[in-house]
Amino acid sequence: MQVILLQDVKSLGKKGETVKVNDGYARNFILPKKLGVEANAKNLNDLKLQKANEEKKALEILEEAKAFAEALKDKEVIVKLKSGNDGKTFGSISTKEIAHAAKEQLGYDIDKKKMHLADQIRSLGVYNVPIKLHPKVTGELKVKVQEL
């Protein structure tokens, strides 16, 4: 019997796949537990429409991420850091502070977990902070660290 999986089933397949299983396994396990449906013409057509809709949504999300990365390219966030007389700084700038400054100054709600700093920012100057907006899109935000 051909079955379209509605959920991932261990050792059988992933959600959305069409697999061939024994009739008893389908009737007694997969269908009663709502793990899959019989692969008839209607269900196969529904699956095709659902996959097309998911691809369309994924493409829209990718385009939004690209547009946001393009908008971030020209933006700059100013973060203040306390420093001594000899130019030595006290503490460091974290991704949490950068995300807070971006929300306050630019109005962008950026997740601090998506920012990837190679090292902590411990000195004054201008830094480019990469932000992972989508698995295929990485934007950069310019962070200017000034004396408090």
Automatic annotation (TrEMBL):
Using the record's annotation, list all stretches that form the Ribosomal protein L9 domain: 1-47
Which Gene Ontology cellular component terms are annotated?
A: ribonucleoprotein complex; ribosome
Q: Is Ribosomal protein given among the entry's keywords? A: yes
Write down the superkingdom of origin: Bacteria
Residue stretches making up the Large ribosomal subunit protein bL9 C-terminal domain: 63-146
**What is known about what this protein does?**
Binds to the 23S rRNA.
Tell me the NCBIfam families matching this sequence: L9
Protein name as catalogued: Large ribosomal subunit protein bL9
